């Protein structure tokens, strides 16, 4: 039996992937607990992925909107997102 080799799946562009709470915490130089509080207070839009408790993700658009609403320039973040 002959198998055809297929090209590996292309990786998604990193700019389109949602952010993890720990990534946002590192960018803002705060603890993850602070990010969870922002989400609980409705100041930062997030969604849950997976079954059970799952994990929380924040879209890059929501994070950008959060930064713009507070006047935080992206250049001042601790990490590049």
UniProtKB/TrEMBL annotation:
GO MF terms held by the record: DNA binding
Domain Helix-turn-helix, first and last residues per copy: 19-70
Pfam families from the UniProt entry: HTH_17
NCBIfam families reported for this sequence: excise (TIGR01764)
Protein name: Helix-turn-helix domain-containing protein
Organism name: Streptomyces chartreusis
């Amino acid at each position: 039996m002959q198998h055809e080799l297929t090209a590996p799946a292309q990786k998604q562009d990193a700019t389109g992937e949602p952010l993890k709470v720990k990534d946002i915490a590192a960018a803002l130089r705060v603890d993850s607990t602070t990010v969870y509080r922002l989400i609980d207070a409705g100041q930062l839009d997030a969604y849950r992925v997976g079954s059970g408790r799952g994990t929380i993700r924040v879209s890059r658009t929501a994070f950008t909107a959060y930064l713009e609403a507070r006047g935080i320039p992206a250049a001042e973040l601790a990490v590049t997102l």
